[in-house]
Amino acid sequence: MIGLPVRQLAYKVESLEAAAAAHHRRFGSGPYFVLRHVALASSHHRGVERPFDHSSAYGQWGSVMVELVVQHNPDDSALHEMFPYGSGREGLHHAALFVDDLQAEIAHFAAEGAPLAQLSVTQTGTAFAFVDARASLGHMLELYEPTPQLTGFYDFVAKAAKGWDGKDLIRELG
User: Reduced to 3 states, what is the DSSP secondary structure of residue 137?
Assistant: First the structure.
């Protein structure tokens, strides 16, 4: 638990393209790799299975990945807890951390007053959990185990940013 570096900062946005352009203008981040309608095998919000139809754009901001995320459906989710569907509000939603044991860290954070808000699993088997740290941090935390597939994606995004000329800001994945 101690010494877990922030791997990613994620923002809820209304438009991936507009947010990527604005973030790049302000901070030089990018390029952004867009995954539309992320395929999930399951998603549970506050213990209830719910659809979580979202798209994300992933870019590099210095040593940290930045994720821009849009939720397409109105169902309850960890994202909509902070930014209600249709509100038009945007902002920091979560900081992401790699953990060695996802279930153990979910339990640890719950014991510390940051309960599990959402647990989702991608079609490729990557589990990610949002724990509700708003009372202490003002935002959620995302936890996931650093599988080779996940760390490979982080490395891919970071490598694309090295020496990047600022062209082709948005790049589609899948």
Answer: helix
